[in-house]
Amino acid sequence: MLNFYHALARKLKPLQPLWLLLALASLVWLGYLLLLAPVALSQRWQLTATVCFAFSLNVMLLTLLFAEPATDGPATDFWSRLLNRLRYAGRYLLGCLVSVLFLLIVWLFLRIALGIMVPLLS
């Protein structure tokens, strides 16, 4: 999993300004919906703006956390081996957290798509 995220982060690293721009645009859009938009418009598009913001932040988190491969230092004694294993476990837990966040974002996106498609088809 860590190798997959490292390869994905290397490919997404050049697009990091785009993800930042998308995050800022969706944050401005969400602020408009919360503060200035009519209630009907706000209720319709609030979840979409939140999901766009969460997705762009999650991609930025992925590119920041996994851009460098996990390297182990020289392990000569017990404490350095333990420290290397704890670092690896921490990176693996961060990878699991990013995976769970992506699954949650996909689930919310599917709910949005279902909410848009059902009224159109009925």
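(ticket continues) Second input and output from the same batch:
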Amino acid sequence: MQFDRAELDDRLRERMELLQRWSRVIRHDLGNVVYPSRSLMEKAANEGEAGRKLGDRVRVLTEMMEANRAVLAFLGPLNPSDSDAAVIAAEWWPHAKSLLRAVPNGSWTITGPTRRDRALPISACGLTHLAFSVMIAVDLHAERGSGGAFDIDCDEIPTTSVRITAKGRFVQPPQLLEPIRRISDQLGASFEDEATLTSWTVRFAWE
């Protein structure tokens, strides 16, 4: 089944908005668990050895929840500071990959950047928005349940850029849809893409 461009625009925008609402609710609820748990942890530490062990367990759990809350913040709304920042993509990747793996239907592998000398002039939130928008567009174009492979990497030559490549089976060549263009513009990036029925490469670049 094929969609026209306006329908794809609407579907991508709806999914991005749904993800943002979902992440806000989950972050709020996690906070309702984390903050009382800290108080419990402090009280347990004063209750002997058993209390200290309980406190240690609570501390580990709260640290895990805090880490998850921080990752969900990557899906927060973009603001002007997101285009005036610096993120090392290889440091962003271990935190963001669990979110990104939830986007596509089917069996998709996802590989991320490894070079720690590759900094992009945007925030972690900005990089997440770019990756999410492209991956949602891929999911909208892909054959249902077909699967494939994503690769996210950065370049410095000829310009600083992030490159996202998807290889799979598509019902029509993927497109750089309006919501992706808007995110790219907000982050001060130019872009180019190359699409076929089996691959799509999008490159966002900063002069």
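Agent notes: Residues 13 and 38 are 38 Å apart (CA to CA). The two ends are 39 Å apart (CA to CA). Closing as not reproducible unless the customer responds.
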